[in-house]
Design goal:
The structure is a single chain. The protein has 41 helices and 26 strands. Helix 7 (211-218) packs across helix 8 and helix 25 packs across helix 26 (670-687).
Length: 974
Amino acid sequence: MPVREPNPQILRAGGKRRPAPDRVPDLQARGTPKPLREELVAVLGPDKVLSRVSDLVRYASDASPYRFVPQVVVVAEDIDDVSAVLSYAHGKGREVVFRAAGTSLNGQAQGEDILVDVRRHWAGVEVLDDGARARIRPGTTVVRANAALAPYGRVLGPDPASAIACTIGGVVANNASGMTAGTTRNSYRTLASLTFVLPSGTVVDTADPDADVELARAEPRLCAGLLALKAEIEADRELTARIRAKYAIKNTNGYRLDAFLDGRTPVEILRGLMVGSEGTFGFISETVFDTVPLGRRVSTALLFFPSLPAAAAAVPGFNEAGALAVELMDGNTLRASVSVSGVPADWAELPKETAALLVEFRAPDETTQEAYEKEAARVMEGLDLVAPVASVRNAFTRDPKTVAGYWKARKAFVTAVGGARPPGTTLITEDFAVPPALLAEACAELLDLQDRHGFDAAVAGHAAHGNLHFLLAFDAADPGDVERYATFMDEFCKLTVERFDGSLKAEHATGRNIAPFLELEWGPKATELMWRTKEVIDPDGVLAPRIVLDRDPQAHLRGLKTIPTVEPIADPCIECGFCEPTCPSRDLTTTPRQRIALRREMMRQADGAPVETRLLESYGYDAVDTCAGDSTCGLDCPVGIDTGALMKEFRHQRHSPREERIATLAARNFRTVEASARLALGAGARLGDGLMESVTGLARKVVRSGLVPEWLPEIPGPASRRLPRTHRPAAVAVYYPSCVNRIFGNPAGLDDLSLPEAVVALSARAGRPVWIPDDVAGTCCATIWHSKGYERGNEVMANRIVEAAWGWTAGGRLPLVVDASSCTLGIARDVVPWLTDDNRELHAELTVLDSLVWAADELLPRLDVRHRVAAAVVHPTCSMRHLGDEDSLLALAEACAEEVVVPSDAGCCAFAGDRGMLHPELTASATARETAEVTARPFDAHLSANRMCEIGMDRATGRTYYSALLELERATRP
């Protein structure tokens, strides 16, 4: 072991803890049982079998209130892997559950035996027929699919609120719908065809003209069974009428029995049954969707009412006016939404009884939009609207930013309200539908039921379709609280079915949560037909047992997960998974959700328990070291949980006092460090990559990889020691060349101007000259120390740069232009918590601009573009996302190139200063999908705006990335 490896036990929680009832038992501390592990490795290979206890724990949770620890996790790469796992399970009498995004709310993505990850290797979109259809793989998020369709003016019909994270496989398997899909645009209605693997391993492509012939040859018993069930159902007129009536409103409870009515052949029946089957009938390996028009002209209003029933009563009017979406939010939801960025702060003061409708019309043209707006105005004339706080407008708007803010608040319902629940409580998300005409009455009954059982629940939903969601929080470790929840559920289900003839699951699917109440809703005859359908398709019960069908009346109370308190920043997490698609380490080690889930499992264990010890042993690398610290998880988390900040705190805890002293010394003497770094780069260029790789490789083995960077061939030579000459009197801005651009030179082959020279030349050319202070050497944005958790060094440099910047800018009278996006973010925001009170006041007077913004807003309008390249690809950095500067990068690129491409899979490169040199495998994993897009075709320019990210992308793609300002200088050169 390297001599400087930190002790993993440093992160052990202090104090005595009471073991939780749902803790992983000591016997599982060694992970997957050896026979099971070895057998699956023999079938699939070692890289596809995850067997450590940390692997099992991180896959044990999803967005639901349940937690089941699998025996083993398999990462399937293709259909052959899926078939091999199913064959193995049949032969050994084992059970299989498929898991993609893990955003399901009822435990569908959890299994107690073999869990198969079908997200990592299953993404991809192919647009067909000019956007009229799309072929989509099951691990593709809805957002990613819609991004591919947007240029064609098309979109998928299903639009769940979790679109940023949920994947197509789960959307189809649960028949998830969302805000606008209703009963006509969901997966059942818009799925053109699909390819799936049956429990037996048989692969069926419903688009194949010979599919029925081939299925009859491979599965004669299955075909006969399906046709017999079809005949039985069609012969029963009362049952047929009941089935049709059940699907007149939204319903995902149980299996789609109308598939037997709509399908003529076994393949057509299976095509319908697979939708909403929750992984119990097979694995969906590919889908082809019929898309729907995007409707680019949008008119939206957020209308406030004195009560939930009053809001519900207004829904029919907007439905008749042609609204595509009518969304309901109660007072608890509105107040909790203030945790979401952009939501007015005064919503926190809204009365509890207040409710709101989010109403949206979408039109293809101006004439239609105006007609919709006139109809909406007519409906509003008869409404009793209220404006309890100043920000309420009660008016329709076309402003995209305002509309996006409304939808952001609505889509954060589960996560924002869940994040505001009392610490240590478990969140239950219920989802039901009633005939839309009965919505107001259902709201009143629901509020009364919640009040009688002591639940201060939040309510929201797709009011246009009579579909409501509500959230309950209770302590799963308290038997009394569990009993309170159980009693509530009994009464709620009876109320929904007996009073309103409603659906107990409108779009979240049965899962484990409603399985015991299936017969209550469907009756014994239809329920028994569902059991028989399962037996026909999966006679050995291999797939997802106890999901959808379960005869245990207490099944919904089994496996409820406790939520132990951990670090305060992570306590609001409801494990929704919204953070995962943006996480750079998602395909390498862990995600933000998994980092928190692992931490919670440590807290469930007794102090010093074997499971806790094993989790700590792997947590250092899996969670702390391979976190890029980019904090984009905080942007996508609806309650703003910045897991990157937590990992930085853990890095700080792992530092020895000696390491902290050295880091502080480096900050105090950064001028010397900066000069030494240039000398080292120069020496590396002279000695050659091979020798430098050998030297750093040896040092990493002796010390540790987390302290010594690996030399990479893409590392450029040193920057010039001398910065361009500038003059202060004429300057309209202060230009701060970041330390990375003072240390690292241009990439090989770009030997023209350095970035500082280009910025100075461009600014002068535009008549907006800048001044570089003489004493910038030895200063830094402090990100070096901040990202590594060196608190004292961070404090030293943060105060130094703010004091210097305040002086350079004449007390903030001139803007400070910074030429690396991460450094802009560091100076503009990240330094603030580390400043003295006096320096915090100085910082408030500064105007810090990224060089992209400076160039796009101040220079580009004053420049003549003379030379353009044909095609450029851009890499927006994570710091640009935080700053909101991506549009500036795009504007500069569009000025320099005839065609500009932003890769659909662009994300954080995870180079993160030097983390890509400390852990090169992190950048390789984080950039894999973006690299595939970039290298699929040639480009004349590869543009970004952060030197270290450019090096990371050079490493990943084999192309040469450089600052967009260098390209702009060439494009505008006389």
